[in-house]
Amino acid sequence: MLKDNELKSIPIRSKLEENSGKVAPRRKPEDFKKIREEVEKEIAKEVITST
């Protein structure tokens, strides 16, 4: 923010940090490899159907 030829920095809160941990995992411990594979499959389906 610039005021009277002075630059003032204002901290901004991250929405990611603010909402971290608000959704409980389906199972513990989480299998991130499996989650990533599922996400990649869904993205691939979207790409195939959009072309």
Portion of residues in beta strands equals 5-15%
| Range of helix content | 40-55%
Total of DSSP H or I helical runs spanning 4+ residues: 2
Oligomeric form of this entry? single chain
Please give the alpha-carbon distance between the first and last residues. Answer: 44 Å
Q: Taking all residues together, what is the mean pLDDT? A: 86
Summarize the structure.
The protein has 51 residues and is mainly alpha-helical.
Fold topology:
Elements lengths: L1 E2 L2 E2 L7 H5 L12 H19 L1
Antiparallel strand pairs: 1-2
Looking at this protein, list some descriptive labels.
single chain; 51 residues; mainly alpha; two-stranded antiparallel ribbon; 2 helices; 2 strands; 47% helix; elongated
How would you explain this protein's 3D organization?
It is a single chain. With 51 residues, the chain is mostly helical. It has a domain at 26-51. The chain contains two helices and two strands.
